[in-house]
Each structure stands twice: as structure tokens, then as C-alpha cells.
């Protein structure tokens, strides 16, 4: 058992090193005054100053955040309603079919999804830009929310709902005062997952972004095509740190939801 635990620890360390070494390498050279990634000449914050002083870049950051927050919020609402609908479906074949279709959307290649949205928006006459990006982000975020919320609904005891109904609670009261509070951790998990997916997405966004509108992922790609610039390193470092803050925030939110339950059991 000890050998297996040591091997698993070594394996995890190797995996984490492979994943995080390039990120820390990129972050390290974002402070390089030489302007390249071959030799470190001295510490500087010039690349961060360039990023912070770039008005166009900050407009793109704002676009990205608005798209991410809006799409995550709308996808969470639709995803919760979808999970509730799936849970209370009586026909098992229909239920399994919808769950399978939901899972297919998650594992489908982003290139196919992006190309499909591009064809759809072109056919129905939606101009590529803010609306097309928002709709596509909502669409690929909904299945993620459903997967995060549905397990919480399935583990909820039906006796809670029966007790509330017996006490005279209406359907809306059961939903708002019993079901929603119970599945809140799943809702937060779905929201944050949708938010991070939206912030990170490149392939789908690349297909549905029109002229005059861009997101950070597409902008970083266009900057990288022009040549190596440590401005990309600085921007990527800021995005990585923002993602870390989101993860830490999600951790503390989930811990707050767990503590009352532990206290109630005692």
C-alpha cells in the first residue's frame, strides 16, 4: 500500500509539473526586460504597463467578462430548469435520450460546434458579433450546468418535498424554499464552470466572432500570429491569476455551504 501511495504521489507530481511548468515559464518571462524568452536580462514591469495602457485591449477584456457573466447566468437558469425537467420525466427512454444528447454536446469537438453555429447564424441572418458569441456561449454552457446540477437533484430525498407539500407549501414554495437551497452548491458549481468555459473558449468564439468584436482568447491568438511579444505573457499571466481567484472564491463558497450541513448533523 505504501509503495502504491508513493507511486501515485510521484505520478501526480509529474503530471502537475507537465501542466504548470509552461505556465510558470511564461509568467517568469513576462518580467523580462530583454523582450524575448531566451535569456533573462533583468526585472521589469513594462509589459504589464503596456497591457494596462492598451485601451483597445481593455475593451476586449470588458467584452469577454460581459459575455462570460451573461452567458453563465442565463445558462445556469436554463440548465437548472432543464435538470428539473429531466429529473421529473416519467418516460425513461425519453429521459435517457435527452441525457445522451446533453452529454454528446459536451464531448463534441469545439470546431464542429463552432462551424455549426456559424452556418446557423448565417442561415437565419444573425450578424456575427456580440449576439452570436453570447448565444453560442449560452448553448455550450447549458449542458455543463445540467451535469453539475442533476446529481444534486438525484441525491435529494423525496421525503423533503413530500413533507413540504403536506405542510401546505405550493409548488413555487417547494421549488424556492426546498429544492433550490438544497442544490445551491450544484448551481454555484455549474455557474463557475460555465464562466470558466466561456472565458477560456477559443474555437467556437473564433467561428462566430465578427469584425469589430473580439474576446481575449481570439485577441491573444491574433497577437501570437504577429510574432513573439512579452505583452502576451503579461496578459496571459493576468488571466491565469484571475482564474485562480475564481477557483479560490468558488472553494470558499462551497465551504460555507458545507459547514451549516455539518453543524445541522451534530
What this model shows, in words?
It contains 12 helices and no strands. Helix 3 (55-87) crosses helix 9 (184-200) and helix 9 runs antiparallel to helix 12 (230-265). It has one domain: MetI-like (MetI-like fold), CATH 1.10.3720.10. The chain is mainly alpha-helical and 266 residues long.
Quick tags:
single chain; mainly alpha; MetI-like fold; globular
Query: What's the N-to-C terminus distance?
Result: 34 Å
User: How many domain modules?
Assistant: 1
Number of helices: 12
- Unreliable sequence segments: 262-266
Major β-sheet annotation: none
Which structural class best describes the helix and strand composition? mainly alpha
Mean pLDDT metric = 83
Number of strands: 0
Look at the structure and give the CATH class. Mainly Alpha
Binned strand content: under 5%
CATH superfamily: MetI-like
What percent of residues adopt helix (DSSP H or I)? over 70%
What is the secondary structure topology, with strand pairs?
Layout: H1 2-29, H2 46-53, H3 55-87, H4 92-107, H5 110-124, H6 130-155, H7 158-166, H8 171-182, H9 184-200, H10 203-208, H11 216-226, H12 230-265
